[in-house]
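Residues pack. Consider this:
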Amino acid sequence: MFLSKRKLSVFLMLTILISMIFSMSFNNSYAASTPYGQLKVVGSQLCNQSGQPVVLKGMSSHGLQWYGNFMNTSSIKTLKDSWGATVVRAAMYTAENGYISNPAAMKSKVKEIVQAAIDLGIYVIIDWHILSDGDPNTYKTQAKEFFKEMATTYGSYPNVIYEICNEPNGNASWTGQIKPYAQEVIPVIRAADPDGIVIVGTSNWSQDVDIAANSPLSYSNVMYACHFYAGTHGQFLRDKITYAMNKGIAVFVTEWGTSDASGNGGPYLTEAKTWLDFFASKKISWCNWSLCDKNESSAALAAGASTLGGWTDANLTASGKFVKLNMSGGIIPSTIAPTPTPTLRPTATPTLRPSTTATPTLRPSSSVRPTATPTSTPAATPTNSSPSVTYTIQNSWGSGATINITVKNNSSSAINNWSLKFAFTGNQKITNSWNAISTQSGTAVTITGSGHTSNIPANGSVNFGFNISYSGTNSKPGSFTLNGIPCTIQ
């Protein structure tokens, strides 16, 4: 009996020792299952766990409430294995029928994406995707609760990156709203995840990294978001990034597109390649917008592409082919798609909008008078040089919708201090707008430019948008006038 007990004790001790060794081995292999282990920020660079600079490349989802079905284990595996992606981004809108309206479903989808990334050994950005809500403090309480749960659940995994405010805009300034917001949210994350990477959006739809660099946050492992669209943003924005990095902050381009800032136009592949070469020279990580089959230039997938991955080039758009080849390091063929010449100008960029530059004014002719309320029959017939309007119902959720409008100046003279007028066809009410100022009286609507959108260059365009509430049908307006000039409708 004594020998049996002694043997049993030895056996138990050996079992415990083997278990400890196995556990240590498991943890080491688990950490190594990500491409670079636990990431860290060293100076202006994102680095691996050994402190060597690394570059993450991957895809962002579109809004999970609309196109979340394209982000799953199978599709992410295709991105990793066939495209060479090392990161994916789960774009969880707060407003626009997103998390605030449907927290359980949105949270569940985010967790599905995070777990898929962990299982597949790549990084994942949890994106608190503010857009029409503008000021990140609007839903600060919900943000703190959400990130507390995310950090508590995933804080032990090196895969997870937290993006705490996608694109602050409107009156949200860095020192006034964004930085104070981050100073409340980051400690909530740090309580459960002391070393995870946190990405903070910057003012002006995450363009003003230079302003953030002048008053950075004091926390470690913090990066700053910058977003661009190739048909809208050029050297001026690259200069902002260079300035910010020279000041010592790290920049992560968590969203960029081959289109203009509306998601359409192009794809502008020549300018996009200039951007990607710039990223390579600066070792800047990026996620492309977006993995979906939406009918817009920035979408990576062609209409009807499988939600489960396994895509051939026939399932990809021109943008998707370009991004895949650049992600995997392939050689970009010049025949991938004709590339329009982008109109580059300093501008604000929500995921929806380009901007403008001021020049001389185009006046309405004396025979065309501004009309207070447009009707279905314009006062004059539009000509080839008349302004054109593209009115897009971008997203709809039954009782509301997001509207995107592009106004094109087809003349050889600039239009300053413009005013666009039209009438809704039903009971639509504008609830908030961006990139322009909207007023409404009954069905009559007047939109005027604001700041950088006040002027439309010769042969240039402006882009703006608004959300509406309505009941019943939501038909498009039948006519528009710009400074009293009838517009063609695209």
